[in-house]
Design brief:
heterotrimer, A mainly alpha, B alpha/beta, C mainly alpha, A: mainly alpha, 10 helices, about 0% strand, C: mainly alpha, about 70% helix, globular
Chain lengths: ~220, ~1000, ~475
């Protein structure tokens, strides 16, 4: 009887049948890539701020210590965002009429807080505590990257759970001496031997119970 | 200022609506708050105010901002126009200046029924989130009851009145002051027309102001009334001691306590303290030699009676007879005609006599004065006065017979001699005695002003309604059960434009505005305070040595002759206030509404309590009852009392005396908040009992005036636990849920009370595999069932700490209540007068948790410290874990219960606990947020960090428990209290045969019956 | 066999054979006499290829569409409001969602059993019902699949149940029976689908060849995967079919075994029982055959298939129902006995509560439906009466649903602590979901009988004496 399909159909059907497997695999691979990309993690995206504050200038340039502004980083879960007062401590004297600083002056005069854009955002069901990390020898730069090289602040790390666990499962890979925590430029000479030492010295535990962060 | 302004200019905001003395007023909160600013403010994880504060900006300003943000309303009105700086001294436990993200604690006091109890209020970034008891306050000693715990919800309640009103018309405070002037002018001439109606007042400042006012307006009268008036006690003590005095009990010194229908452990001034004192003599450990004994003679089940060693269930009218019989026993007055229970009472009397000077007879507030008098006479005879009972002056500024006080007011109002009535709190239209016909008299008064937190029944009929501040919003003071004064300091500026009674009085005094702070401070500065003392008082939460001194008084031992014996035919009706919503003032508090009542486990409702026999008598048979109870339904009956008929749901309670019907008043509110008045169309939030509460029968009545007729149809009841007895025949055998025994048995063989199958199962590991070794902490809890009165303090504490949702009556009827911690109530023995056992059941944190392996996504897993973690954000909601939990302590969000929308509620939430969404399982995790906080602090202590010390972590339930029944700690720390309790012979695990190895265990309930009494 | 499909289809052979042996000495035929290759092919394929669709089909299909809309509405409500619309509550976390899941899965057993096991056992009578039963299996599994997917509180996170690499570095809990379910059910669905499809290929080819409408020819053609009926094709086909049969045989046992683990692994009295796997499997077969009967009896009537689905088929299925029914009934008795014999307070109370508790009516009904009703199958009179068979099958369908009700809510509602006892009642939404899932089932079923041969044409051909004649020659 008359053929209802052209010869090519055979090839076509074979290709589709076997190809399906690979197509499915490829799709999954793409998804895996997307969920780790900045589109999802916001990694490396600098935020527009009401005042174009430059950590690069203040930290690297002027050598101001982190704790001068982030006062509660050693005491509380919240590192603390500086009050306008802190800005004015200096900017009452210098750059007193820079347009760039107008919002700061307004805020101070009108007693209206500056509304900064949040850069590092964790979900509400994740409870992160700055103070314990800082006290156990986790450097600012370990999570926040080279803040001292950022003109506009961006999120240096993906802040995904696998990223947290990477350190929680093997802190020795990242811990540094307490006195180096606020040193942006710190590089361990020999983390392999130093790490385990510090873990013992600071009695650092590998906390991976769910309730370490989720409650 | 342009509306597109992105940031909130606080000053401008205040100018716009803050100064409500300005002429302009506003109608909608939105219009006011310029939505956006506040929305954002609310959403901020860390409110921006935190920053200036950290920098030492004045806390007062901080509170202004906070209040503005939180209330989403014109709350900034809080700032006193004088703008004088007002200081607050944070509690020393926390650093002086606020560290962002860290809570501060402030000592203040919660007033209820005039008496105050010291509390520590936890403040997160300026937002009060939790109430704890103040360990330094004699009425609390660190314990809290449900009212105190729930008061935090009352603070944020968006239904609270927010504006001054004239018959619904929005007005301003200044309008009110304006309208007040002519009234005051007239009063200046003739004060008699001016009346002030308050509730019970113990506040020295308020008292001084009132007295001053009386002096200022000659003839002006001050009336006092509240439905839970304490008149009986007042008058009883007066006839015993010849003057208004106050009796302070020392249950920690008493070996024998006799309760004459008194619920001293969960009701009345000082009950929190009393249950702690009582428990201190009741905790039985391996080395305990003595234990106190409680005889309860009651006319309906109470919390105190539920842990009594001997309970006599009699009709209300018989209590007096029993009292007389006891009196006669100790040699006072003629022996009463009590035939039944004679031997029981005789044994009781012998016990009293054996314990001269170490016994207490306490009469219930609902008992007539004569019973109180007799009780005091007995106390005198057994040498209790001066030893276990201290008599002091009354802490009340002006103790009066409140019923008579109100009667006078009503008479004068009817006579038209009342020109102006200023009501400071209270809700007389709703709660005045029925026969006073208050509303009619009220209507004759030309000027009626009402200060109250809600726009309620009375407010609606008043010319002026002024929103009242919450105790966490304003300055004040008050006395505790022993007279100890606490300065009540605010944690936050008034959210809803409220005014304190003191402010209103100030305006009456001369129209000039005086901030509560000035009033209180100046009062105390002129009464022995100085700057240092003042700071200390605020800091400690008590005014040093302000407890009233003991009076050398002795009660008259002459027993008043019995009046004509009450005719006790037919039913007796007992009317008393509700254990949850009190006299109705907490009707809009959803936490208290949904709280299972201590004895009946009923929520959202008041019901008519009957004994099983009496129920049968009105044709409510056992079989039908069981079916209905299964389905969370009950039947209704028409209750007629003196010709007034109410249709009430009937509930059968074992332990009720025959032919007695008990019902609680406070429900059936028509106004005063959504929760209070419209629980739902179908279920009108309980029945209003005040219409049958007459001035000569405030606690009920007896005889032929009462009829009870079963009416057609059934009625849905939100009851969280049916009438579970643990009698083996009812539950297929002994389930070993409650282990109990007598003190004697315990002395002979401490293990006996756990039952033999326990000794068999004791301490053997059922597993083939070696058990997991907990190297670090091993958190565990022990709950002492001997001292638990089922008071519910822990349940609400848990709800407040863990942001637990309210689900509403319909959902409770569907058995979907969310409380993580429930108090199981079991009956044992005959339904006429069964033993009652309370068993708080949180998550058991099983080491072999059945819930863990069945969760397909590992949303629930075991922590290295033995906690049974629940990871809300990982939960997909298969509910398998709940099915497989033998204790059924897991709670599922069947709907979106959590309120994400009401802005006013958001700042109330505990920022350390995730608010759960729909479709997610949740449960108790031993307040893991508190554990983590403590661990972090410990780890930061020293280069190596250190272990968390015993007592550094307290769970919310443990901290609240008035009788210290709950102990929590680290099992691996041999020195911890919990570790030692685990070794106690009476320690047992619930359903231990399942080998779930629970971390939460119980101490068997040990009672101390009098061997001379059989049964 | 190769020449078989060279047979010109237009050539109708007159039937010449006449039966000599008295009928009572012959086994009941699996195909009524007087049929030829062509007549079989004609008869079955015309059902599919005829131009005019009978009005009855439209009616039935319409009804199924209405029910589907009910299902859609329910699912919508469920996803947007929450599982709270169901009757579940705190003691009873699983209600009609899981009841219906198990019920459907059980029904989904007959297909594979008939196709695979009976094939391996060379039960040729299976031939005329296997295609139909397999289809039914697929549709039942589809309906069943709805429930586990939608019973979760947050269905949009269901994918967490699958093991896949993720940024949380989390795996699912492999110890959870629900995990096992995911694999068991999906495997079963896949294999049954393949088995069914492979079986269809030669018939799709037949349809392709007979279809007059071009579109139909193309569509069937695609399905036929270029089947030409060459000896090579037949050889490979037979191998593949046999392999699949071998594969699916253990699945018949595994699926319901694992479903039973959902309960057996838990420790609730009434769930925690070692005999659940065989009990559930037997129950499944029981339910499956009941459903095949429920559908086959009307189908046979309306589609005039009495010749192919003969009384022998019905009777055999009746016998199987009787056998499996007895196993199930035995399990019920065992359940009671073990409960009592355990001496365990909770187990004993569970037994007592089943019989005398608030749900006693359900239990009595269960015993009547699954225990007593099948006993009618002892008698040939009833086995050979379509009416009685149908009624019995209906009883069993209801009974099996009751069984799951008694196992799930009636065990959960009163477990260890009396304080947390409660009651369960299906809400209107529970029922609309159930009815809706029936709609889905019918919908697929109607499509199937309209567009695919519900009886395997080529296999029916092999039942003809001619086929065997050929067979003997080789």
């Amino acid at each position: 009887m008359a053929q209802i399909f052209h010869r090519s159909t055979n090839t076509l059907s074979r290709v589709t049948i076997f190809g399906a497997v690979f197509i499915a695999g490829f799709v999954l691979w793409v998804i895996g890539g997307i969920v780790r990309s900045p589109y999802v993690t916001n990694q490396g995206i600098a935020r527009e701020q009401p005042v174009p504050f430059s950590h690069q200038h203040h930290v690297a340039g002027l050598g101001i210590d982190c704790r001068y502004c982030h006062t509660s980083v050693e005491k509380s879960n919240f590192a603390g965002v500086p009050p306008t007062q802190t800005c004015m401590n200096c900017h009452a004297q210098i750059w007193t009429n820079a347009d760039m600083l107008a919002p700061v002056r307004n805020s101070f005069s009108s007693n209206t807080p500056i509304r900064w854009e949040r850069v590092h955002r964790l979900p509400d069901y994740v409870h992160f505590n700055h103070s314990i990390h800082v006290n156990k020898g986790v450097g600012c730069a370990s999570c926040h990257g080279r803040i001292d090289r950022m003109n506009l602040t961006y999120q240096a790390s993906p802040l995904t759970m696998e990223w947290c666990l990477d350190c929680h499962r093997a802190p020795e890979k990242y811990v540094r001496p307490r006195d180096q925590v606020f040193n942006m430029a710190y590089v361990a000479s020999d983390q392999k031997t130093l790490g385990p030492q510090l873990v013992r010295a600071y009695n650092i535990q590998k906390l991976t119970s769910c309730s370490t962060c989720h409650y | 200022m342009s509306d597109n302004k992105t940031t909130l200019d606080f000053r401008e905001f205040r100018e716009r609506i803050g100064d409500i003395r300005g002429k302009e007023y506003w109608r909608s909160l939105e219009e006011l708050s310029r939505g956006a600013d506040f929305e954002e403010l609310m959403q901020d994880e860390f409110p921006r105010q935190a920053a200036p504060l950290a920098n030492g900006v004045h806390r007062r300003d901080f509170m202004k901002l906070m209040s503005a943000s939180i209330a989403l309303a014109g709350a900034a009105a809080c700032t006193p126009p004088s703008g004088k700086p007002e200081k607050i001294v944070p509690y020393v436990k926390q650093p002086e200046d606020l560290i962002p993200g860290k809570p501060l604690f402030f000592a203040t006091a919660m007033p209820l029924g005039g008496y105050t109890t010291g509390v520590l209020a936890e403040s997160h970034m300026g937002r009060p989130t939790k109430i704890e008891g103040n360990p330094d306050h004699p009425s609390s000693l660190g314990g809290t009851d449900a009212y105190m715990q729930a008061s935090i919800l009352g603070l944020y309640d968006p239904d609270r009145s927010q504006v001054v009103r004239t018959f619904g018309e929005t007005r301003t405070w200044s309008d009110f002051i304006g309208a007040l002037q002519p009234v005051l002018k007239e009063a200046a001439v003739n004060g008699a027309g001016l009346r002030i109606l308050t509730q019970t007042v113990t506040s020295p400042t308020l008292g001084a102001a009132l007295r001053a006012l009386v002096a200022q307006y000659p003839g002006m009268q001050w009336h006092q009334w509240e439905p839970v008036s304490g008149d009986n006690k007042r008058e009883g003590l007066r006839s015993a001691f010849g003057g208004y005095v106050n009796a302070v009990y020392h249950f920690d010194k008493a070996s024998v306590v006799v309760s004459l229908d008194s619920d001293f452990m969960s009701d009345g001034a000082g009950h929190v303290r009393y249950s702690r004192d009582f428990a201190s003599r009741r905790r039985v450990r391996h080395d305990t030699k003595s234990m106190n004994r409680l005889y309860a003679i009651e006319s309906s089940p109470t919390s105190s009676g539920s842990i009594a060693d001997h309970r006599l269930s009699v009709r209300p009218s018989q209590i007096e007879g029993c009292a007389r019989a006891i009196a006669a026993g100790v040699g006072l007055g003629a022996a009463g005609a009590i035939a039944e229970n004679a031997s029981w009472i005789a044994a009781l009397v012998r016990d009293l006599q054996r314990n001269q000077g170490a016994a207490i007879v306490v009469a219930g507030d609902d008992q007539p004065p004569v019973v109180h008098a007799i009780a005091m006479a007995i106390n005198q005879a057994i040498g209790a006065i001066g030893t276990t009972i201290t008599i002091t002056d009354s802490p009340e500024v002006e103790p009066v017979n409140q019923l008579e006080s109100l009667r006078r007011l009503v008479t004068d109002m009817n006579a038209g001699s009342v020109k102006a009535l200023i009501m400071l709190g209270g809700n007389p239209i709703f709660d005045a005695p029925a026969d006073f016909n208050f509303a009619a008299a009220f209507d004759k008064v030309p000027f009626r002003a009402h200060l109250s937190p809600y726009y309620d029944e009375t407010s609606m009929l008043s010319h002026w309604h002024i929103p009242e501040t919450h105790y966490l919003e304003t300055w004040g003071d008050g006395r505790g059960h022993d007279g100890t004064v606490t300065i009540q300091q605010p944690l936050i500026a008034p959210l809803y434009n409220g005014r304190a009674a003191i402010e209103v009085l100030a305006t009456l005094a001369g129209g000039m505005d005086q901030s509560p702070y000035d009033a209180v401070r100046s009062h105390w500065m002129t009464n022995g305070a100085n700057e240092t003392l003042w700071r200390k008082w605020l800091n400690d939460g008590v005014v040093t040595n302000s407890a009233l001194p003991a009076r050398t008084a002795s009660a008259s031992t002459s027993i008043p002759a019995p009046v004509a014996p009450k005719q006790s035919g037919g039913f007796e009706l007992r009317i008393t206030h509700d254990p949850n919503i009190y006299d109705g003032r907490f009707a809009n508090n959803a936490w208290l509404q949904e709280l299972p009542k201590p004895q009946t486990k009923i929520t959202w409702e008041n019901v008519l309590l009957l004994s099983p026999k009496s129920a049968n008598a009105i044709g409510f048979g056992d079989a039908e009852r069981d079916d209905l109870f299964n389905e969370k339904h009950t039947l209704q009956a028409d209750l007629s009392f003196r010709g007034r008929t109410l249709r009430v749901p009937v509930w059968v309670v074992p332990g009720m005396p025959e032919n007695v019907a008990t019902i609680h008043f406070g429900y059936g509110r028509k106004h005063g908040g959504k929760v209070a008045s419209e629980i739902s169309e179908k279920n009108p939030g309980g029945v209003d009992i005040y219409p049958i509460r007459f001035s000569d029968g405030l606690t009920g009545g007896a005889g032929a005036q009462i009829t009870l007729v079963r009416s057609a149809g059934t009625y849905p009841i939100g009851c969280t636990q049916e009438h579970q007895s643990i009698n083996p025949k009812d539950v297929g055998g002994d389930r070993g849920i409650i282990r109990s025994g007598t003190f004697d048995e315990y002395q002979r063989n401490p293990h006996a009370i756990l039952g033999e199958e326990h000794e068999a199962a004791a301490e053997k590991d059922e597993s083939f595999y070696p058990a997991f070794e907990y190297k670090g902490h091993a958190w565990a809890m022990v709950i002492d069932t001997s001292v638990c009165t089922g008071c519910n303090g822990c349940v609400i504490a848990c709800q407040a700490e863990n942001n637990i949702s309210v689900v509403g009556k319909e959902e409770v009827v569907r058995e979907r209540e969310m409380h993580w911690l429930r108090i199981d109530r079991y009956y044992r023995g005959a339904p006429e007068n069964p033993e009652v056992y309370h068993q708080p059941v949180p998550c058991m944190q099983c080491e072999n948790a059945p819930c863990e392996p069945v969760c397909p996504v590992e949303a629930t897993s075991h922590s290295s410290e033995g906690l049974n973690d629940m990871t809300y954000n990982r939960c997909v909601g298969t509910r398998y874990c709940s099915n497989n939990c033998p204790y059924k302590v897991r709670r599922f969000n069947f709907f979106h219960y959590a309120d994400y929308d009401t802005e006013a509620m958001k700042p109330m939430r505990n920022p350390d606990v995730t608010v759960r969404t729909r479709g997610v399982m949740e449960k108790c995790t031993y307040c893991v947020q508190r554990i983590n906080a403590a661990k972090i602090e410990a780890e930061k202590d020293g280069p190596q960090g250190r272990r968390v010390r015993d007592g550094e972590v307290t769970t919310a339930c443990q901290q609240a428990c008035p009788s210290e029944a709950i102990t929590f700690g680290d099992m691996n720390d041999p020195s911890s209290r919990v570790a030692s309790l685990k070794k106690e012979p009476a320690n047992y695990a619930l359903l231990e045969d399942l080998n779930t190895r629970p971390r939460t265990t119980y101490l068997g309930a040990i009672r101390n019956p009098n061997p001379e009494i059989r049964g | 066999m190769a020449q078989k499909d060279e047979t010109p289809v237009h050539e109708i052979r007159p039937v010449t054979q006449e039966v000599r042996v008295p009928e009572r000495y012959l086994p009941a035929p699996t195909i009524e006499p007087g049929h030829s290759y062509a007549s079989i092919t004609d008869h079955i394929s015309t059902i599919v290829l005829r131009k005019r669709t009978p009005i009855g089909w439209y009616v039935g299909f319409g009804i199924s569409l209405i029910l589907i809309s009910v299902l859609t509405a329910t699912i919508g409500k469920l996803v947007f409001v929450g599982v709270g619309i169901w009757g579940i509550n705190h003691p009873v976390g699983w209600g009609m969602d899981i009841i219906n899941f198990v019920w459907w899965i059980g029904i989904g057993h007959a297909g594979t059993l008939i196709s695979a096991i009976l094939l391996l056992l060379r039960q040729e009578w299976r031939t005329s019902i296997n295609r139909f039963a397999e289809a039914m299996t697929l549709f039942a599994v589809a309906a069943a699949g709805l429930y586990p997917a939608l019973h979760t509180g947050r269905p949009w996170y269901d994918f967490w149940l699958f093991p896949y690499p993720n940024t949380m570095t989390l795996w699912p809990q492999f110890r959870s029976p629900l995990m096992w379910d995911v694999f068991a059910v999906s495997t079963y669905a896949t294999v049954s689908a393949l088995f069914w499809y492979v079986g269809l290929i030669p018939d799709l080819a037949t349809l392709r060849d007979r279809a007059t409408n071009v579109v139909a020819r193309k569509i069937y053609g695609m399905g036929a995967l270029g089947w030409r009926g060459s000896a090579k094709h037949w050889y490979r086909y037979e191998t593949a079919y046999l392999l699949l049969a071998g594969l699916s045989t253990p699945l018949v046992l595994s699926v319901h075994t694992i479903v039973s683990f959902d309960f057996a692994v838990a420790q609730i009295p009434g769930w925690h029982a070692t005999f659940f796997p065989p009990y559930f499997v037997a129950g499944a077969v029981f339910a499956g055959f009941a459903m095949v009967l429920t559908l086959a009896i009307p189908a046979r009537k309306f589609l005039k298939l009495e010749d192919f689905i003969t009384m022998k088929h019905l009777e055999n299925m009746g016998k199987i129902m009787l056998a499996t029914g007895m196993i199930v009934f035995y399990s019920y008795l065992m359940e009671l006995f073990l409960g009592w014999y355990s001496g365990n307070v909770f187990e004993r109370f569970m037994v007592h509560n089943r019989i005398f508790g608030p749900y006693w009516k359900m239990y009595v009904a269960l015993i009547v439906c699954n225990g007593l009703a099948p006993q009618m199958m002892w008698f040939k009179r009833f086995r050979t009466s379509t009416a009685f068979l149908f009624i019995t099958a209906m009883f069993v369908n209801v009974g099996m649903w009751l069984e799951r009700f008694v196992i799930i809510p009636a065990s959960l509602h009163r477990d260890f602590l009396p304080s947390s006892w409660g009651m369960y009642h299906g809400s209107p939404w529970d029922w609309s979901m159930f009815i809706g899932s029936m709609g889905l089932f019918l919908f697929l079923l109607f499509l199937f009988i309209r567009f695919l041969p519900m009886i395997s044409i080529f296999e029916m051909r092999t039942l003809l004496p001619e086929a065997h004649a050929h067979g003997e020659e080789h």
